[in-house]
Amino acid sequence: MTQTETGENEGLLVRRIRNGTVIDHIEGGEALNVVKILGITGTTQEALSIATNVPSRDMGRKDIVKLTNRELSKEEVDRIALISPHASINIIRNFKVCEKKGVEIPSLIEGLVRCPNPGCISNTNEPIQSKFRVLPKGLHCYYCDWVISKDLTSYIL
Ligand SMILES: [Zn+2]
């Protein structure tokens, strides 16, 4: 998809932003989960715009999230890949796209997802952060071998 097409699509739905991040090509219906995985709760500082189920030639429908005055780090960008592997990230400075990056599925997730196993050492009072390997079958707990294969978003801390 070209820059112009993206711009036209978005222009109708969400105002352009001067500085910040536009997360485009999110799987239709996943925008709120993307926001959740970024730790944006509404009490944080970012101004947030969300467009859902925008018609897309490539994807059928897609969601778009815009964050004003916030640039996502590589780590934050890669988290998004867990729920929306085709997302693209545009860093905007002074109304221009300065940087465009894809998301890469990380091989290890630390401290972001809660292990569903109540007996897991990461769920005790021990000062141990949750840790998961990302495997094709799902997220594999480093400590107790539990695998999260679906509904990942309900385990995000
Ligand atoms: Zn575990």
Please state how the strands of the largest beta sheet are arranged side by side: 2-3-1-4-5
Uncertain stretches: 1-8
Q: How confident is the prediction overall: mean pLDDT?
A: 86
The fraction of residues assigned to DSSP E strands is 25-35%
Radius of gyration (CA) equals: 17 Å
Shape: elongated
Q: Which CATH architecture of the largest domain is right? A: 2-Layer Sandwich
By CATH, the topology of the largest domain is: Alpha-Beta Plaits
How many distinct folded domains? 2
The kinds of small molecule bound in this structure are: zinc ion
Instruction: Give the class from helix and strand content and strand pairing.
Output: alpha+beta
Distance between the termini: 34 Å
CATH level-1 class of the largest domain: Alpha Beta
Largest sheet: number of strands, sense, barrel closure: 5 strands, antiparallel
Range of helix content: 10-25%
Count of helices?
A: 3
CATH superfamily of the largest domain: Aspartate carbamoyltransferase regulatory subunit, N-terminal domain
Number of strands: 9
In sequence order, what are the helices and strands, one letter per element? HEHEEHEEEEEE
